[in-house]
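Sample pair:
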Amino acid sequence: MRNLFLIVTLAFNINYSWSQYVEWPDSSASWVNIHYSYVQNFDIWGNSWYTVEQDDIVGFCVNGEDTLIGTETYTKVDTCLTGGYKGALRSENRIVYYVPKDSSQEYLIYNFNVLPGDTVNFYYEDFYANYSLQSGQHVLQPGSVDSSLFQGKWRKTIDMGGSRWIEGIGNSYGLFLEHWDNVSMYLVELNCMSLNDTVHFINHDTTYIAGNCQYDLGFGKSTFNETKILVFPNPAHDLVNLTFESPNILTNQVILRMFDIQGNQVTIEASQTNEGYTVPLDDLEQGLYFLDIQIEDSHVSKKITKL
């Protein structure tokens, strides 16, 4: 009887955490989306490899400014890194709606009422199609709806077949962006989300200022040039090589750490070479990782995709 009571209690707690609605922010919030491309490189012998390079960063802010569109009241969204009106958002009954700039049409972009087995219909912006709005559909699999703790709040999370929808935060692949793993030569992500000068979501390789997601359009506080650090091949099956343009760097203390997409450190056994290091990937699951390179007091983080 005691075991049965424990099971019932656990089930109640899980469902209770789902029921705790976390409102969509309508003021003092910011999101940063980052886009990366796979770039093919060649050496003088014709050998090729890929590196992952950042090529776009877009920030969005809501500052409590309302606008009336039709009969509904929305919160204005600005592109806070470059300035200008992006569109407007409103939430009702755990559903978030979006009206793009120069439009009066409302589009559903998040629905946090869904459960496993449901077919989710939504809209998203396709980076590869110049951020044009596209319709999407996804069937939720068993176990795809859960709760996760962010800044002391249990939030409903939905596995969208690649990314996660997080209630009160958005899509882990980027606010407004697609929700699944793509097969093209690029990556998208929500790099940071903050509310009231407190970070509520952050990817491992993010540098933020004064507790929010207002960026200086770059990563890290490095005293060395990260473009002179090469990680290849990337994506990789079994190992990646880490080389430095200046061999003098190897005379300093170099510390390598690997983190998964959730920010958990994973074990690696790197071997030093004449040019840098070799990092085996055999024991890692397929997915996206972050290699943190510490040289004395400086850090640089490189994204690695394990195939």
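The longest strand covers residues 48-62.
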